[in-house]
Recover the amino acids of this structure.
């Protein structure tokens, strides 16, 4: 059986990726099970989806803990433990990361034994309009790595699964997915079907006796109020709203009131975005009367900040030296 | 028709479409909403006749469903979890009306604390209402069960509403290959609803008793409902046999998987039972004689079919994805009641609570439940019920509690956190 897990953020087409891959495998003659798994149900929140494919009927169900292939559509998730991107990896697992960093960098950072491949994130993140296509692009690359899906079957699956989004979206996704499929040609078929967990020699579960805790501990009381500020939901952002203060009319009530996360504060009639908590929903950009809020791909914004910090750091060192 | 990939929610919607329902009262709730969205799209697009009305709550939705069914039209509705419980008063009421219709429940754990994932305490809260219950293990079974449920509900020997249960996420959002039967084939199995004169019509009031009853008449009507429900086992068996003849799929009241020569048998309901099937295959490869017994029909309770299937077995492993707080697993309790005093009943019945709030059950846990039950068989001592819960899971909760405690120190300095014994020292407010 093939067991594939795909990680990304809400809005990147991660559910769609599992459906494209699922349909393609189904057309290739496999029994298929595909599903998304999400909690927060909002743009930018970590989600994952999974696909099982086998020649026999599938009785396994739910999250895959022993993946043959893990696709990470957004490399910022590798630093989010709750996303569970590294769950159940072993030496046979192939990890495909959509990233600007090199395979060596990630292999070293994550201490991964198995095979780690990079799907170059080049154009997608720089072209904002292309962001929702990452899912299909990843599905295209994954299809090639499996080695059992033909190019035209992949195209057919995309046409079917995206049909209701209109011909332009279908074409764009198909083009991206097929390009990713072709880019992986050297690695075609590198993913191998894994075996089921055998009942002989299994590792017994480490069951515990549930302790009876005092109600002070075990009732769902609020131990600390007002602490949601501690959760840096800004990590969810894929697009960053940036206010151009040269054009801002200081009609601060509009953007700060309509921000669903209260992430825009106002000081002296000037709206200021709190990037620790802004999830990048871009509602502010949509409602800004003078169109003074633009979107910048989060990746580029971070790159800009890093280079700024590095420059400042160098300056500081220089000063100290002097 | 060749199979196509459908989610459990889409399969439920297809069941309603193929049953050619007349009326769909609706109210959204995760993870059910896709069902009514799908039906709404088809109704708007003219792909199916009938009418959908969105009500202001599940309570009103059930009232509308029961009232419409009582006039002799075919009614479908769907809900989940909190929605089902919000409608609880009307579940008993419309069952008492003997209003035949089908309600799909997409199982989800009940608040508090809140979750969106599968857990059977919602559907089992409706256990005693008078609704019959069918429990599904895969997406094909969801579609098939909706069709079977109409035959059961509308049968003149029964005339009761039927709940069809599918698990949130594990079926609701999971696509699997599903064969869609042709509508002409479905019509052969499920002809249009014939209320046989038992219905309300405009300007023709009827009454079978006075409005407010004493205990005698009340007992009569309540027990008649019970007797009608009990008819459901035989009627279901006959309807399921017809279904198999027409569509080729076995839909027996109780699924027996590799039980014939089994010494130890898993006993459970719902989609996690397919995980048990997988575990049975792996355990058989390892030389273990194990099987799976899974009631599809839970109300009426097919006691004699279950007891017969378990006669002579050495042990039964009951996995409850529910918890009767202060007692234990509901399936475990009901199975013991069904087996007590029967000759040849299995001497060992072990109880495991697993899958609460969608918590997964690993293959290793299935294997280990067999090991534990084997030990009980050889020692003659049955272990106490066990919650399937690992040290890693407890460690995670302890971490979250530790973070909460630290945050309290940070955000409200001066207030000391609860210690492990639960004793708390509060600094007096100044």
């Amino acid at each position: 059986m093939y067991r594939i897990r795909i990680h990304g953020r809400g809005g990147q087409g991660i559910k769609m990726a599992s459906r494209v891959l699922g349909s393609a495998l189904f057309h290739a003659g496999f029994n298929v099970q595909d599903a998304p798994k999400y909690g927060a149900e909002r743009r930018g929140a970590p989600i994952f989806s999974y696909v099982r494919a086998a020649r026999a009927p599938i009785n396994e169900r739910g999250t895959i803990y022993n993946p043959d292939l893990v696709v990470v559509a957004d490399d910022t998730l590798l630093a989010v433990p709750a996303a569970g991107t590294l769950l159940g990896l072993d030496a046979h697992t192939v990890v495909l990361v959509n990233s600007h960093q090199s395979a060596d960098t990630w292999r070293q950072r994550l201490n991964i034994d198995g095979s780690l491949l990079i799907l170059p994130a080049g154009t997608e993140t720089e072209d904002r309009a292309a962001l929702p296509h990452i899912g299909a692009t990843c599905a295209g690359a994954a299809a090639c790595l499996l080695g059992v899906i033909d190019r035209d079957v992949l195209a057919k699956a995309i046409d079917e699964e995206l049909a209701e989004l209109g011909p332009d979206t279908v074409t764009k996704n198909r083009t991206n997915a097929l390009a990713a499929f072709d880019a992986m040609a050297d690695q075609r078929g590198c993913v191998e079907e894994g075996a089921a967990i055998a009942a002989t020699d299994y590792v017994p579960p480490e069951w515990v006796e549930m302790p009876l805790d005092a109600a002070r501990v075990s009732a769902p009381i609020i131990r600390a109020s007002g602490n949601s500020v501690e959760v840096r939901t800004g990590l969810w952002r894929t697009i960053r709203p940036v206010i151009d203060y040269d054009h801002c009319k200081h009609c601060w009530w509009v953007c700060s009131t309509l921000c669903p996360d209260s992430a825009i504060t106002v000081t002296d009639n000037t709206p200021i975005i709190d990037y620790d908590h802004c999830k990048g929903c871009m509602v502010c950009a949509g409602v800004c009367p003078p169109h003074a809020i633009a979107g910048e791909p989060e990746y580029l914004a971070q790159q800009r900040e890093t280079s700024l910090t590095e420059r400042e750091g160098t300056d500081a060192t220089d000063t100290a030296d002097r | 028709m060749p199979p196509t990939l459908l989610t459990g929610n889409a399969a439920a919607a297809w069941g309603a479409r193929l049953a050619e329902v007349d009326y769909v009262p609706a109210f959204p709730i995760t993870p059910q909403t896709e069902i009514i969205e799908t039906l709404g799209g088809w109704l708007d697009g003219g792909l199916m006749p009938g009418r959908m009305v969105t009500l202001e709550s599940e309570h009103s939705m059930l009232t509308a469903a029961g009232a419409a069914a009582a006039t002799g039209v075919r009614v479908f509705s769907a809900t989940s979890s909190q929605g089902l419980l919000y409608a609880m008063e009307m579940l008993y009421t419309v069952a008492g009306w003997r209003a035949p219709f089908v309600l799909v429940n997409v199982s989800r754990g009940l608040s508090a604390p809140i979750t969106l994932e599968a857990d059977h305490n919602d559907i089992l809260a409706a256990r005693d209402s008078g609704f019959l219950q069918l429990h599904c293990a895969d997406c094909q079974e969801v579609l098939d069960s909706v069709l079977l449920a109409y035959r059961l509900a509308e049968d003149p020997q029964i005339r009761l509403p039927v709940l069809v249960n599918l698990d949130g996420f594990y079926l609701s959002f999971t696509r699997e290959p599903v064969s869609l039967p042709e509508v002409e084939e479905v019509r052969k199995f499920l002809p249009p609803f014939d209320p046989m004169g038992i219905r309300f019509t405009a300007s023709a009031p009827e009454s079978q008793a006075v409005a407010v009853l004493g205990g005698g008449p009340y007992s009569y009507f309540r027990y008649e409902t019970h007797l009608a429900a009990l008819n459901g086992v035989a009627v279901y068996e006959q309807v399921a046999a017809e279904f198999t003849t027409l569509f080729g799929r076995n839909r027996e009241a109780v699924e027996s998987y590799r039980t014939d020569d089994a010494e130890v048998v898993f006993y459970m309901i719902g989609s996690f039972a397919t995980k048990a099937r997988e575990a049975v295959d792996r355990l058989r490869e390892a030389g273990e004689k194990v099987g799976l017994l899974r009631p599809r029909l839970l109300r009426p309770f097919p006691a004699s079919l279950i007891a017969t299937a378990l006669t002579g077995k050495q042990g039964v492993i009951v996995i409850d994805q529910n918890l009767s707080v202060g007692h234990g697993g509901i399936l475990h309790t009901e199975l013991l009641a069904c087996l007590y005093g029967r000759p040849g009943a299995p001497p060992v019945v072990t109880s495991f609570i697993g899958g609460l709030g969608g918590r997964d059950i690993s293959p290793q846990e299935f294997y280990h439940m067999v090991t534990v039950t084997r030990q009980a068989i050889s020692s003659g001592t049955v272990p106490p019920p066990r919650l399937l819960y690992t040290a890693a899971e407890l460690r995670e909760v302890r971490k979250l509690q530790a973070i909460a405690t630290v945050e309290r120190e940070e955000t409200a300095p001066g207030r000391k956190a609860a210690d492990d014994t639960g004793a708390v020292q509060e600094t007096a407010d100044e």
Summary: Chain A has ten helices and ten strands. Chain A touches chain B at residues 19, 22-23, 26, 31-37, 39, 41, 58-63, 65, 196-200, 202-208, 210, 213-217, 220, 223-227, 230 (CB under 8 Å).
